[in-house]
Amino acid sequence: MADIDAPHGRLTPYAHSLGISVDRMEDGVPVLTVDFSNAVEGRPGALHGGAISGLLETAGYAALRGELERIERQARLKPINITVEFLSAGKSRPTFSKARITKLGRRTANLVVEAWQDNRDRPIASAVMNVMVKDEQP
Amino acid sequence: MPEEPTPFDPALAAPLLGKGSHNGWLGLQYRDHGEDWVELELPWRADLLGEEEEEVLASGPIISLMDMASGLSIWTRKKLFQPIATLDLRVDYLRASRPRASVFGRVQCYHLGHSAAFVRGVAHDGDADDPLAHMQGVFMTIATDPRSFSRG
Fold this sequence. Notes:
The complex is a heterodimer. By secondary structure, chain A is of the alpha+beta class. Chain A is about 20% helix and about 40% strand. Chain A has a 6-stranded antiparallel β-sheet. The relative contact order of chain A is 0.21. Chain B contains 3 helices and 8 strands; from the N terminus they run ααββββαββββ. The radius of gyration of chain B is 16 Å and the shape is globular. By secondary structure, chain B is α+β, with helices and mostly antiparallel strands. Chain B has helices spanning about 10-15, 20-25, 60-80, and strands at about 30-35, 35-40, 50, 55, 85-95, 105-110, 115-125, 135-140. The interface between A and B is large, with 37 and 43 residues.
């Protein structure tokens, strides 16, 4: 079940399949994007909550992978939990997502992730994630 | 005069709700239901993996599975299809699924308020007593949606 992004911005098969890609980097943190398509549609013309959650989670792992790489720490990631708040309906247009690492500890990481469409100040969803970080012996 | 609608049947509705959308793309299938719960299956598929080298489904599709099963459990308990929106959803991941295993999502609507519906459930890979994940969520009915045919 591990939804893990490999180094160098490489995304999971699931993320690729859903149409998620890296839009740009901001202060070393990837901003991910997904275009509107049948694959992410829920109610007609609206984004599916599960697809939004998948984007948020993928953005979380991408940010964490990037930071671990930056500090040259080799670790395996395992999901602990995610709580998603759906703030407004996602419309039929591109969606973006970026995570902030609240805390990166020895065994766990805590992240806050947001997803937005036209207006970044009005996110359509936000999530908190806890991730297990297990150091690998070199 | 509007006729009394037929009570919502998840076995009949599930295949229709998925067509041409995220749920259809995932290939979610109806498995079983009771008075207030529904179980769906997410079949294993190579392009839904979390890691290429491990044949284990990603966690993203599991959230979608639980979201869809949640909606169906609410409509089943309500005996009525009505547009709903997910307010929040929490998933606790207990363990990874077995390689190449389908994941099943069983969700119960344990309380129906006036406009909020409360759900909880588990994801498992064959044995519901040995879950992969626990889920809890709250959904809101969309009263202003013109497609709503809720009466009163």
